[in-house]
Each structure stands twice: as structure tokens, then as C-alpha cells.
């Protein structure tokens, strides 16, 4: 059987204003200003018989994100919904049967509620960490569960539970699409998605890295991590593995691949 190659399209599901401090480990970031970043998901379209796959789902509610997470203004638009973004590719939410969640932060798992047919593929360790977060409840942001939204977690462990597909480590989800666990990096159970394309291996990163130049090329871990050494090793491994590293919150990456990765000849 011929190997399946995939084309990857970024879906723009919102924007948020966040500090650049998130981009680089501790004081290695000299830039402390606030920047507008996209909140992306990724649509994988196969060249063979396989079904399309969605990676991540965006957030559910800008007001809720701001009131709970306090990261700065979040913006939604009618053309930035999952429904509208999938329609650009001739798909509806009912066409999505598989969703891979890189991790369960509010801006990645918040849109699950819009996908009535999908099974949700997530690491068991991530769901456990999201349900019983280790952060201090004294913090005045994050609702006692920094960057996880407990409403998203409640849906996954109750209403959506029959459709939750738990992984324990690396797994091939479809031919040419592999989940790779990077434990205790951005979150306890963050996974990257390795996707085979005609141009090489694309690695969808979630937030394991935020800025390709800083985190991957220079090897400086991002500002938010659980285990610094695990995160440093992850940066080096991704640099070796990825022909196309794809973080979630980088407008340059979005614009570069807006018409699909790999670019088609003549475009
Ligand atoms: Zn994120």
C-alpha cells in the first residue's frame, strides 16, 4: 500500500494579546512587550482514502477566557469559528471523526463542544493533570487550574467520555499521523503530532514550543514548562525530527502555510 501523505491547513480560531515573556525561559527573553497571537487549529487532509483529522479546537468563549485566565484581550469573529473555518475546505463539523488534542489548555480543548461526531485523542496523563492540577489555588488567575478550564475537563470526563480515546505514550492514529508524547514540557501530557507530507515531516507542536527561531533553532526553552530539562531535550529532538515545526500561536507560521503545507507547485 502506498504511504499516505497529508496536506495541512491552519485554521484561525481567534486571537489573544499575551506577553512575549511566554516565549523564552526566564530572563532570557529581553522582550517583555505584549503581542497579538493567533489561536490556531490544524486540519489534516489525506491524499488517500483516510478521513480528515483535526488537531486542537480553539477556545469556546472570549469573555470566559479573559475573566478566568486573565491573559489579556481575546477576540472571536464569526469567520473564526470552527464551522466557518471548516467550511472554507468544504467540510462541516459532522465530517470530523477524529480530533487530536495536543493538550487540554482552554485555547486548545475549548472547541470540543462544537464537534458532535468526533472522538478525542488525548494522553491519559494530560487528562489526569487537567482534572487535578498541581498549581496553587491562591493564584488570582486561572480559576485554580491555570490555563485549564474546568468546564472543558468536566465535559471530557462526563458528557464526551464515550468518545475520549486515551493514549499512553506514542501512537499512530492514522497512516502517516503519529502522536508523540513530550511529558512534562508545556504540560504534563503534551503531545506533538508528526504528520507525513510530500515535503517532509511536519510536527504540530501545540505549545511545546511557541517561537520556532527562539525555542527550536536556538534551543531556548519557552517560558512555561513543567520540567526544564525535559523541555530542553524536547527542543533538540524536535529540531532533529521536524522539517516543518508548527506552533499554535505564531502569525508568521499561519500566513506562511495559509494555503496549505506543503505548498503546491505553481502556487
Ligand atoms: Zn495555547
Detailed description of the structure:
- This protein is α/β, with parallel strands linked by helices and 267 residues long.
- The protein has a single domain, classed as Ribonuclease Z/Hydroxyacylglutathione hydrolase-like (Metallo-beta-lactamase, Chain A, 4-Layer Sandwich), CATH 3.60.15.
- The protein is 22% helix and 27% strand.
- The chain has helices spanning 62-69, 82-87, 106-109, 124-131, 150-157, 212-217, 228-241, 251-256, and strands at 6-19, 34-46, 53-55, 74-75, 98-100, 119-123, 164-167, 171-174, 177-181, 191-197, 200-206, 244-247.
- The strands form two sheets. The protein has a seven-stranded mixed β-sheet with strand order 4-1-2-3-5-6-7. The chain has a five-stranded mixed β-sheet with strand order 8-9-10-11-12, covered by helices on one side.
- β8 (171-174) and β9 (177-181) form a beta hairpin.
- The protein is globular and about 55 Å long.
- Zinc ion is lined by residues 105, 107-108, 207, 248-249.
- Residues 38-249 form the Metallo-beta-lactamase domain.
- This is Beta-lactamase domain protein.
- Keywords: Hydrolase, Metal-binding, Zinc.
